[in-house]
Every structure is written in structure tokens, then in C-alpha cells.
Design a protein that fits this description.
With 305 residues, this protein is α/β, with parallel strands linked by helices. Helices cover 31% and strands 14% of the residues. It folds into two domains: 80 residues, no CATH class; 175 residues, Rossmann fold (3-Layer(aba) Sandwich), CATH 3.40.50. Strands 3-9-8-4-5 form a five-stranded parallel sheet, sandwiched between helices. A two-stranded antiparallel ribbon has the order 1-2. A two-stranded antiparallel ribbon has the order 6-7. Strand 1 and strand 2 form a beta hairpin. The N terminus is likely disordered.
Amino acid sequence: MDPPALQSISRGAATSCCHGFAVASSCAGGRDSSCSISPAHVGLLVAGHGSGPSPSGNIGPGPGPCVGHIMTWRKLYQWMDLDRRCLLCAAPCRDGIICPGCDRDLPLNRNPCPVCAMPLPPGHRGLCAACLRHRPRFVRAHCSLLYAFPVDRLIHQAKYRRCFELLPVLGGLMARYPPPWLEELRGEKPLLVPVPLHPFRQLLRGYNQALELCRSVARDLELEIATGVVSRTRHTAPQQGLDAARRRRNQSATLFRANPVLAKGRSLLVVDDVMTTGATLEAVTRSLLRAGASGVHAWCLARAP
């Protein structure tokens, strides 16, 4: 049976496959192991990622050695040569994973605050009101995109539905829209430092999304990753849905411990997936500065206003 075409990812889509994407109704809800996925999605799975149980009990892709669907050579051939389609709208897409139309519609962070990357109204220049009141400890932050559709949906799938194969795509978008000050910072030989997960949460999820984003950025932009520079000492509740005050309490400086041997005298570029209030980045920055880092910058995939 030919795999159904991946439908456009849209809010309120009627049917969802086992990977959380909107698909044709013939997929029968995607709840059984015979669910077929589009050639574009097959291609992403072939990139070396496997499958594992999602929190809801479904089988979804993860960083293991096998995949959750039987992929025939015919499907692989279709993806590679005949039927490569956009991840977002299913339009034919020969060059890349996202078609030119969807690429033009990506929510870029076009006019950010130069310090915290908060999106500002068109024509506004200078710092945002929050940075004028209290400047963060990090030197400056950059967010490549806005946390808006479809980026928010893709991040959610990658983090909470075990769609591990989306992370190289998202990391590639980060590399395409780097900080304007990155070339200036290269003279300091910065190290990419992924925001760590607590070991228990990483065990449940199977991977650290910040580290996977770092891998793509490091490969595309020829930067170096430093793991083990900072670790998370306590397991806390997820940040999603918390207000600013609770986020700050949740991410106190004591939550992170930096390694002075690795941090001292180094320029560090902290990488995370989403920046909302900046509480996590602020806590990581304080721990790194206490350990002797010469300077800390931040780079996130998406900025939530």
C-alpha cells in the first residue's frame, strides 16, 4: 500500500498519526503499528534514528538503533528520488526538507532586543523595558525564530512525542539563522554548552534536545561542543505552563553546578531550545560565571514573547 501523503500541519487537524503529525484519515488514527508515514518522514527516520515508547504508550522515533515502522526499499527509493515532500505541507520538495513556500513563512525573530532577544515592535531600537530595568548576567542572547506556528508544534513533537528525527532539522534552522555577533565571537574560540537535563528526565526522554541542537550547529558552523561544563543538580517540575515568578523559583542558581576546570577563562555559548522568561539561561550563566567563565552568551532556537 502506498503511504498516504502527509497533510499540512494545522491547528485542529482531524487525524493524528503515531508521531503526532496530521495525516490522511486512512491512517486510522495512527494507533497501530501498520500506520504508514509519508516518504518525507521515512527519509528523516532513515537518517539513523530509532524508536521507543512515547509517554502516551505509542511507538515513536527516538535515538535507538531501529525504527518503529517497517520501511521497504520501495519507500526508501520513493523518498530519495521520486517523491520527496515538504515536512510541513507535503508539497514536492527536491532541495531540502522544507519547501521554499514554507521556508518563507517561518516566524523569524526580525527585530529582537539586542540583549535578551525579546521580539520588539517594528521600528523600535535599543533595549526592551525588562533589560532596562534589570540587565541579565549573560552578555547577550540570540533566538533564531519565534515560538509560533509551526515552530512551536515541531519543538513540542521533538520534546514530548519522541520525534527525535526533527531535532537535526531544527538544529539546521538554527545554523541558518545564527547570531549576528557570532563571527565577532569566534575570535574568543567559544564553546557550545547545551543546557543540561536532570539525569532522570534525560533517561525518561532518551535524549537532551539542547545537546542534539548543538550537534547540528557545531557540524554546520564548525564550532566545538563542551559537555560536562555544567550539570543540573535537582529534578524540578517541567517549565511548560509556569508563570514568570514560578519559573524563576524553579530555576534558582543552586539548580546548576559548573565545573571550574572546564569553565575557567573560557568564552561559553549556552544553547537551549526555547527562551521564555530567561530564568534558565540566567541560572546557568550565574553558575558558569561563579566557576570562572570569561563571558557567557546565549543562543536559543525560539523566543516566546
